[in-house]
Amino acid sequence: ETGVTQSPTHLIKTRGQQVTLRCSSQSGHNTVSWYQQALGQGPQFIFQYYREEENGRGNFPPRFSGLQFPNYSSELNVNALELDDSALYLCASSLARTGVVDTQYFGPGTRLTVL
Amino acid sequence: EDQVTQSPEALRLQEGESSSLNCSYTVSGLRGLFWYRQDPGKGPEFLFTLYSAGEEKEKERLKATLTKKESFLHITAPKPEDSATYLCASSTADTGRRALTFGSGTRLQVQP
Question: Is residue B91 within 8 angstroms of chain A, CB to CB?
Answer without folding.
Answer: yes
